[in-house]
Amino acid sequence: MMNKMFLKNRILLRLIILLIISILLLFFTGCEFYKENKDYKKIDYVIGVSQANMLEAWRLVSTKEIKEEAEKYTNIRLIITDATSNPEKQKKDINKLLDYGIDLLIVSPCDVKEMTPVIRKVYHKIPVIVMDRAVEGFDYTLYIGPDNEQIGKQAGESVLNLLTNRISTVLELCGSQNSKSSIDRSKGFQSIISEQSGIDILQYRIETATRDDTEDMVLEIGEQLNNVDVIFAHNDYMARGAYLALQQLGMEIPIIGIDGFTGENNGISMVQNKRIAGTITCPTGGKEAIQFAMDILNNVSGVPKQIILRSHSITEDNVDEYVESLDQPLIVSDHIIDVGYSQLGTESAWRLANTASIKEAAKDAGINLIFEDANQSQEKQVEAIRNFIKLKVDVIVISPVVDYGWETVLQEAKVAGIPVLLSDRKINVEDDDLFVTFIGAEFLEEGRRAMHWIADNVKSNNESINIIELQGTTGASPAIDRKKGFEEILSQYPQYQIVYSEVGDFTYQGGKKIIEEYLQENEWSIDVIFAHNDDMALGAIEALEENGLMPGIDVKIVSVDGTKEAFKAMKEGKLNCSVECSPLLGPQLMKAVKDLVSGKELPLRIITDEKVFTQKDAKGLMKSRKY
Ligand code: AHR
User: Fold this and answer.
1) Are 408 and 456 found together in one domain?
2) Buried b (16+ CB within 10 A) or exposed e, 3-15
């Protein structure tokens, strides 16, 4: 009996085990089956895209580009929302996207003022890429957009090329008065036109900036059209509206538009079909947004703060060449890339860190770097460039000591077919085609930030605040722009004034000498020292201490760079603020070199990420400083 029961139980147990195994097997094989058949993909990142609206044709192209680029990555998922140009809706959209657990937000704000605080909040949680319309301040990870003022200038040049009479009238068809891009386009356009005398601008505004409303508007202009020599429309849809109106009126007036999209009835085909005389391309940056989103999410080093996209002037002369260039496959280089780098010198700690970053990044990228140090001599830089041309390097990079006098040698590089990149400092040339792109900081903003800090922290109590300015090298773009940016904000505070300003050449000794000389000739009545770089500020600190003054207390000191030495001085209470200017340009530069050699189009400007540091930050951040 016992045996029978035992046997029964064993059979039951076996049956149960078999059942469990079958269920498990079914479950696992079932999953595999699901994986194979449902094309199961592992999603690593969810990217939220908050579009300002899906009405403007430009924005539709932008969304299409984002989608197409995202499709190239199997491990990301996009969630796209349409704010219908309503800031309240966009705020809700963004909150929903956050609830969905997005890892990164791409946002094209529909209202700069309204959206700034919301975007700032998101930026404190996850990375944010702002597209097309900027926000106030710098609380975002990366901005990607066009330079609308530059686009307006290009349109101005195209219009001038079409004018045959000295006395002419241009009809400018503007977009909404609230559209920042339309305002900037107009500004750039008018700056070019106003350089010539005898040209009248007849301006009309089409609030909706659409084809149909433009068509109606041009039809309404009537008689006045008889005097118009060229029409400039702020986008290609308006250009098309103008063209349709002219057709009905039986008139022919050359038209310049903006956008330059491919596809039926868009700018490029209208140029090809001779409906408009030209267009200026205005890239959406959708593709770049996804590419940089992936870099950010994968913690790739050297992601910039701003990418300013390049625009091209398209006319019937170059339209076919342009269309061809769009379909070019990327070139795989069959040799090690040679880069000739002309560094301006070794004047500061910043410069040494900059050189180290460039050399290290070239090594990491497998690029052959031919490095020349010009010891602050422009002549030596010109000599180095000529030598690079002789060596037939693939790319020339210059960190130019001054911003003038580069035309001749850059023309030689152009004739030799060698592209030139600018690293760290800008140049002032008539022909922007002499270099491909600029990678570096926004010096103007650094100057503004320095003065903002002073206005916020050195209070005036109705007495005047006296400032000494220690300037960098005369003619160097950081010296020019930091001064300009500083004075721009200074002009808003009448009680603050620069009472003494001398050139210290960005060196420690230069800064020290200025303060020593000032002290020899003057009673000390200075409240603030603004130094164009940390080295000069540190030199000034030594001079003050040698003369019994307490830097940081008796006189507040603000400088630019954010070097380790500056952090040490802030920690010791001798320096009050250092506006960051990163010298770590190597990784971005080498990426740009590789992109260029492979045939990719580089942006117009690549601007680095920078912050403002004060004594409060110094202790905590000092260890993490990389230069
Ligand atoms: O061009 C960048 C400037 O040059 C840095 O601020 C300064 O320290 C350097 O010498």
Assistant:
1) no
2) eeeeeeeeeeeee
Same domain, 447 and 436: no
What gap in Å lies between CA 498 and CA 487, rounded to an integer? 9
Domain presence at residue 222: yes
Q: Give the distance (Å) from ligand 1 centre to CA of residue 341.
A: 17
Counting from 1 in the atom list of ligand 1, the atom nearest the Cα of 561 is: 6
Same-domain check for residues 450 and 559 = yes
Per-residue model confidence as pLDDT tens digits over 301-341: 778 999 999 999 999 999 999 999 998 888 888 899 999 99
Q: Determine the distance separating the centroid of ligand 1 and the alpha carbon of 532, expressed in angstroms.
A: 8
What mean pLDDT comes out for the span 465-472?
A: 98
Instruction: Give yes or no for residue 579 CB within 6 A of ligand 1.
Output: no
pLDDT at 29: 43
| Ligand 1 proximity of 425 Cβ (cutoff 6 Å) | yes
For 241, phi and psi rounded to 5 degrees?
-60, -45
The residue segments making up the domain with residue 257 are 148-285+319-324
Q: How many domains does the chain have?
A: 4
Same domain for 154 and 172? Answer: yes
**561 ligand 1 Cβ < 6 A:** yes
Q: Which of 86, 118, 140 is the last residue of a domain?
A: 140
Report whether pLDDT(626) > 80: yes
Quick check: is 314 in a domain?
no
* pLDDT tens figures, 546-589: 999 999 999 999 999 999 999 999 999 999 999 999 999 999 99
- 29 CA distance to ligand 1 middle (Å): 63
User: Per residue in 241-262, pLDDT tens?
Assistant: 999 999 999 999 999 999 999 9
Tell me, in angstroms, the distance from the centre of ligand 1 to residue 499's CA.
24
Window from 30-34, 457-461, 468-472 with minimum mean pLDDT: 30-34
pLDDT at 36 over 50: no
Structure tokens at 348: 């500061």
Residues 131 and 210 grouped into a single domain: no
Same domain, 478 and 569: yes
- CATH number of the structural domain spanning residue 25: 3.40.50.2300
Distance 514 CA to ligand 1 centre (A): 18
pLDDT above 60 (res 22):
no
Q: Mutate which of 350, 443, 483, 564 to test ligand 1's pocket (most atoms within 8 Å of Cβ)? A: 350
Nearest atom in ligand 1 to the alpha carbon of residue 478 is 1
- How many separate helices (H) and strands (E) can be counted in the chain? 21, 24
The answer as to whether 616 is a domain residue is no
**Same domain membership, residue 167 and residue 63:** no
**Whether residue 571 is found in the same domain as residue 594:** no
- Pick the last residue of a domain from 111, 140, 169: 140
CA 560 to ligand 1: nearest atom: 6
For residue range 423-436, what is the model confidence (pLDDT) as tens digits? 999 999 988 899 99
Q: How many whole angstroms from 174 Cα to the centroid of ligand 1?
A: 41
Report whether pLDDT(61) > 50: yes
Residues whose CB is less than 8 angstroms from the CB of residue 258 and which lie 6 or more positions away in sequence, other chains included:
151, 155, 185, 233, 234, 235, 236, 239, 267, 279, 280, 282
The answer to whether residue 620 sits within a structural domain is no
- 424 close to ligand 1 (CB < 6 Angstrom): yes
What is the C-alpha end-to-end distance of the chain, expressed in Å? 87
d(CA 166, CA 418) in angstroms, rounded, equals: 38
Strands 199-205 and 142-146: unpaired
Beta bridge partners of 281: 259
pLDDT for res 6: 55
From the CA of 447, how far away is ligand 1's center (Å)? Answer: 13
